Amino acid sequence: MWEPESYEESKEEYERKTEESFKQFLPWDERKAFDSEAADLFNWHFSLNALLEAAHSTELPDYQKKSFLLAVWTRAVLLKNDSVARQVAPELATQVPEMSSFLDNYLNAKTRTQRDSEALYIMLKFSNLSPYVPYGVPEFSTAEETDYYFETSWWCKPEAIEYHMDGTESPKVVPAPRFIGPQALSAAKRERAALIAIGDAKSWLGKRVLEWAKRSPADPRMPEALYIAIQANKSYKYGCGSWEQDEDTRNELEELLKEKYPNSSWSVRLAKEETNTENPDGR
Fold it and tell me: What's the domain count of the chain?
């Protein structure tokens, strides 16, 4: 689909990147993936500790372990369970080498506040992170690899309504597995309520970046963090409430990036994008 007027890169470079982007899917030709019903069971009725136990189960294929550990670490960070997040970080670094240097910074942070900042930066850099176990073939990429286009990135608040083919709708119900006891189900229910209260990733990330910017305005990563949070909150980000956008947070992020870091490459990039949007024909 390469067209010279649409891409600055050559056709050869475009095709190389396309081949590279699909490389992670090739091994799944001989693998099994969870369907949406199985994922719902994990995400409704498995607590953080139960997911961690499942990640270490001998019945879980090795190629699925990565998805569980990513969900466990992200959920632990969101729920402020510092002990579990720190416990699983070294194992996650082994499973996902691309994250190892970032997780080292997270583990070496001297204070809880610094650790929270490192965790936030990791979430910004790896846009497939979610507190929920995915269904289908799991994807994993960096913000750079997606060219900061986040249409289906991170997570959305779980749907409370099921929509049926006949046009009707009803409250979503996921029956609990019989092998999970009442105490574990209660823990999972509390965690789920807390995650629902956190809401969609885009707004949560934007607000946390603003808080980080107030704490550490001199952090050299701040312009990049602001830019990623802006991109996450653009109106093209469908899936989470469709057109319901947190414009106030996005506007605050844009204003801060332009005013505090006007000479950064990220401010320049944002300005260029805005110019292209206003003048798509280049005039």
Answer: 2
